[in-house]
Amino acid sequence: MRAALAVEMRRSGVRWVVPGIAAISVLLVFSRSGWQWQWLWAADWSAGVTVIITPILAGIVAHVTYHRVRAFGLLVASTTRGVLGVFAAAGVLWLGGVLGWALAVGVALGRAALTSGAGGAEISWALGEAAVVLLAAACFGLMVGTTVRHSLTGPLAAVLVFATSIVLTQAGLDGIFSAGGATAPLFGQRPDPVYYLGRGVLALAICAVCVLIAVARLRPVQKTRISILGAAACAICLLVGGAANWTSDRFLTTTTPPACVGAGVRVCGPSEARALLTVAARDLDVARRVVRDAGLDLQREYAFAGERPTLGPVGVLSVEPSDMGGGHMSTWQLGLTLATPTACPAYWAGAAPEGLVDGQRRIAMWIEEVLAGSVSSADREAARETYEALRACRGDSVPDWDIDQR
Predict the structure, then answer these.
(1) Do residues 87 and 142 make contact, with C-beta atoms less than 8 angstroms apart?
(2) Mean pLDDT to the nearest integer, 312-320
(3) Cβ atoms within 10 A of the Cβ of 293, count?
(4) Mean per-residue pLDDT, 70-97
(5) What span, in angstroms and rounded, lies between the C-alpha atoms of 125 and 141?
(6) CA-based torsion, 237, 77, 151, 154: positive or negative
(7) In this structure, what are the phi and psi dihedrals at residue 182, rounded to the nearest 5 degrees?
(8) What is the value of pTM for the model shown?
(9) Using CA atoms, how far apart are residues 58 and 41, in angstroms rounded to an integer?
(10) How far apart are CA 79 and CA 149, in angstroms?
(11) Contacts of 142 by beta carbon, 8 Å cutoff, 6+ apart
(12) Is 153 helix (H, G, I), strand (E, B) or coil?
């Protein structure tokens, strides 16, 4: 058995698949930043690279299967061992693809652990989804490799897998050959088991359908009753998995109490965002001291802006992890946060409150000038009046200040 596996590994070219998939996955994962600030986000974003990897894996499996069947056609069709050999080659390639992707995931999770600390086992849902999606892509490649007799079988399988994922995603149904891919923080959320179980059932049903078709092409099935029962079971699984995928959300809102950090400036938010909150509290405290020296005393308590804060009359923390440079908030993030001293209901009322938004923009620009050391004493009184209007949620009291027209 071990010798046969070694032969399949040499024939399938898996020794090139593992480093190739790993290199592509690492490049894709690190093509953007921000995800390192949350353990779950890092795992989900890493799973998202499957939208590119699954077409590649399907194309490789289809190419290898086509050439194997072409070279050993009669032998494959006449023996069970021949059919199993084709399946074994596809299985080895899938394992190689999963291993290459897993290496990239390990690097990403290591980066996240260093930045924000390691989290819990909730990431297993996203990682498991990616593994079964890769299996579905490998099975699809196996099916195409046995049904399409052309040298361009590999590229055809890759294009079909990629196009299917994109089309279904545009139709509101998560791509059956892609997983994860969150581009924003998942603070205050947890995976929904119903959704992920449905995704697993759907992927395995697609695998079963593809395997049935491949077997029928390699060795025409004599037992019609078994074929009909198998097809019916696959159809039921497809319906169940598709329904769960369509009706369930990937994530549910958590009910864990918020975490608060900081001494000079106190910042509260989701407990899994503690590392980000700590950085925000430190940067806001430094900026607040500078602005206070310029003549304006700012709010000392802020809440994360993911949802409407429910912690009382506190400021709103506006921080985008993807824009964090060198482990610090950007100057604009600091200005916008400090320019929102109160979580006014108007901010969540639908239409943007023009007076408040104008006041935010002006005071944020003034704070940026203060932090840059180029503040004008003539603007201090207008800055105080603007800030007090924002603190009281009175957009109609914002003074006519021309700082944004200079």
Answers:
(1) yes
(2) 83
(3) 10
(4) 75
(5) 24
(6) positive
(7) -60, 130
(8) 0.85
(9) 26
(10) 20
(11) 61, 62, 65, 86, 87, 90, 210, 211, 214
(12) helix
DSSP 187: T
Greatest distance between any 2 Cα atoms in the chain: 92
On the question of pLDDT at 32 being above 60, the answer is: yes
Quick: pLDDT tens for 186-227. Answer: 888 899 888 888 888 888 888 888 888 888 777 665 455 555
What is the layout of strands, in order, in the sheet containing 315-317? 259-261, 266-269, 301-304, 315-317
Contact (Cβ atoms closer than 8 angstroms) between residue 332 and residue 364: yes
**Residue whose structure tokens are 């390639």:** 93
Please identify which residue in the block is written with the tokens 């980000």.
276
The three-state secondary structure class of 152 is coil
Compute the distance between CA of residue 310 and CA of residue 333 in angstroms, rounded to an integer.
Answer: 21
In DSSP notation, 135-189 reads HHHHHHHHHHHHH--STTHHHHHHHHHHHHHHHHHHTTS--TT------S--TTE
Q: Which residue has the tokens 């992707």?
A: 101
**What's the pLDDT band for 4 if we cut at 50, 70, 90?**
very low
**CA-CA-CA-CA torsion sign (173, 175, 180, 183):** negative
- DSSP per-residue string spanning 80-138: HHHHHHHHHHHHHHHHHHHHHHHHHHHHHHHHHHHHH----TTHHHHHHHHHHHHHHHH
Q: What are the φ/ψ torsions at residue 24 (nearest 5 degrees)?
A: -65, -40
